[in-house]
Design brief:
heterodimer, A: mainly beta, 6-stranded mixed sheet, B: mainly alpha, 86% helix
Chain lengths: 327, 243
């Protein structure tokens, strides 16, 4: 089964077959689905085969496993999310969907930084969202009960045979601009007032305002060679608070990213380096908006457009893929 | 790089403590090392445990993309086959030494384990003996209970029989009382009957006497009549004669 958008009737037929599916779509269509081996999250933005698009009628389908494979669907809240690692198989992967702007979203983002066993198996996923021009709320779905949640994470843990392994790859078109100031933070948090700019304490919102920093550019930290973004959600200069779409961490050194002129070109340049035939792929809605990806095609890239990506930890403005390889 | 370098190599420690300047390419490796360095820096993870974790995961994901490049970058390019064999041989010797050390370490512990095992065996035997005694006592109590139950049943039976007999007796007495009552009533009746009969007899007697008297009276009357007739006749004839 190819990963792409399908009509609701087609998806119902897939569900009846019994294979394990990861679905994404607007809640109007997801709420019509029958019980089965599926998990889902709300999102109406996609990068389909032909182009980026907004749709509330179709559902994006990723087939994760056959009906005969071993998998476990579980629900977690902000108190039980620590158990996620314990529920994984010895060899396999987990796909996690978090509802945006909820405690569970923030809880996972903070805890994953130091979670023991987080890297034992790939944990990939995304943050569910909604139509940005609506008052809908992000939701996650447990297909076993055809039930939706506004405040809980839905995870499927999939076992792989010993001759296979899963791996996560990312494409981040943003790199630290070494010309920029180094920024460090005092706490792990989604919101910041003060920070250290080149070792000096300053108010971050004021710093951004004073330096006319383009807030479409994320803060970038170097994770042993991986560029990890933290995107800016809001700069409240009046109250001196900056809020982010992911937490900043106290023991990391951040710099604002170098500007990107052409999102499509940058993605296509970097996509050659990653596994194109993947089991799952998602990209950030900020890339979709800032890069004006609607109705534009990125070669060899298709998948969900999400309110946050999971590549073990919560990521921003990053393309994340999961692929299965033979040993 | 085919073989994951021995975890005793210095480069592993340098990697997890951040002293290595290698830029990694594999995403899992990048994130794992970053987390490990952070945890060690905070004192939440020992270096040895960190090396163990990272080593094991590298073995698990040795075929992942860029892992080979990363390991080469960390440990250097793959040596010649002789060097490789030497390395393998060193690895075997090291592992052998490790094994010997482990055995020396384990031996006293194994001895301790043996004595603990013997102690456990002794405790188990005692427990088995106690259990046997308990079982025996339990059987005795069960027998006793069974006997008491049997006696209780017998007593209950007897009580039931006695109650039944009493009821029967009460019923019998009631019957007798009833019979007696009837008998009394009968005797009153027969007395009344007897007196009635005697009355009747008396009446009958009286009647018979009256009848007799009447019969006698009637006979006398007839006789008297007859005499009167005779007298009349005589008188007639007398008159006739006299005439």
């Amino acid at each position: 089964m190819e990963s792409k958008l399908y009509s609701i009737n087609e998806v119902i037929k897939f569900i009846e077959k019994g294979d394990l599916l990861a679905l994404a779509g607007d809640e109007k269509v997801l709420s019509q689905l029958p019980k089965g081996n599926w998990i889902a999250g709300t999102i109406p933005y996609f990068m389909d085969i032909e182009k980026g698009l907004f749709t509330q009628e179709q559902i994006y389908v990723n087939k994760l496993a056959n009906s005969t494979d071993k998998f476990l669907i579980k629900i977690y809240d902000e108190n039980t999310i620590d158990n996620l690692v314990n529920d994984t198989h010895d060899n396999g992967f987990s796909l996690l969907i978090l509802p945006a702007f909820q405690k569970i979203h923030q809880s996972y983002a903070i805890k994953a930084e130091t979670m023991d066993g987080l890297y034992n198996n790939p944990i990939v996923g995304w943050v569910s969202g909604m139509n940005l021009n609506s008052t809908d709320t992000p939701k996650t779905y447990n297909g076993l009960e055809a039930k939706s949640y506004e405040d809980k994470a839905v995870v499927v843990h999939v076992e792989l045979p010993n001759n296979q392994f899963a791996q996560i790859e990312i494409v981040n078109i943003f790199k630290q601009d070494n010309e920029n100031d180094s920024i460090e933070f005092f706490t792990d948090n989604f919101e910041v007032v003060n920070c250290l700019i080149n070792g000096q304490e300053k108010n971050l919102s004021q710093y951004i305002d004073d330096n006319n920093i383009d807030v479409k550019l994320p803060l970038v930290a170097d994770y042993s060679g991986a560029s990890i973004n933290v995107s800016i959600k809001n700069v409240d200069t009046e109250n001196g608070i900056v809020s982010f779409y992911a937490p900043v961490f106290e023991n990391k050194l951040y710099k604002f990213a170098k500007p990107v002129q052409n999102y499509v070109n940058e993605f296509e340049k970097n996509i050659l380096e990653i596994e194109v035939k993947n089991k799952f792929s998602c990209n950030c809605v900020l890339n979709y908006l800032y890069g004006e990806l609607e109705n534009r095609k990125i070669n060899n890239v298709k998948g969900l457009i999400t309110f946050g990506e999971i590549g073990y930890q919560l990521l921003n403005q990053t393309l994340v893929t999961l692929s299965i390889s033979e040993i | 790089m085919e073989i994951i370098p021995n975890k005793n190599r210095k480069e592993w420690k340098d990697l997890v403590t951040g002293q290595s300047n290698v830029t990694l390419k594999n995403f899992f490796f990048q994130m794992k090392i970053t987390q490990t360095k952070s945890l060690i820096a905070k004192g939440n993870l020992t270096i040895d445990k960190a090396v163990e974790d990272v080593y094991n995961l590298c073995v698990k994901f040795s075929k992942a993309k860029n892992m080979s490049d990363d390991l080469t970058a960390i440990f250097g390019k793959e040596e010649t086959s002789i060097d490789k064999m030497r390395q393998v041989s060193d690895t075997i010797v090291n592992e052998n030494n490790e094994l010997t050390n482990t055995i020396d370490f384990i031996k006293p512990k194994a001895n301790k384990i043996n004595s603990v095992k013997l102690e456990i065996e002794r405790i188990r035997r005692e427990a088995a003996e106690r259990e046997a005694v308990f079982e025996k006592r339990k059987k005795e109590l069960e027998n006793q209970l069974a006997q008491e139950k049997k006696m209780r049943e017998e007593i209950e039976n007897r009580i039931a029989i006695n109650r039944k007999n009493k009821i029967i007796e009460d019923e019998k007495k009631a019957k007798e009382r009833k019979i007696l009552k009837i008998a009394n009533e009968n005797s009153h009746t027969s007395q009344r009957t007897t007196s009635f009969v005697s009355e009747q007899t008396k009446i009958q007697k009286r009647n018979e006497e009256e009848d007799l008297l009447k019969a006698k009276a009637s006979t006398r009357r007839r006789k008297s009549e007859a005499l009167k007739q005779q007298e009349k006749k005589r008188t007639f004839f007398q008159r006739l004669f006299d005439f």
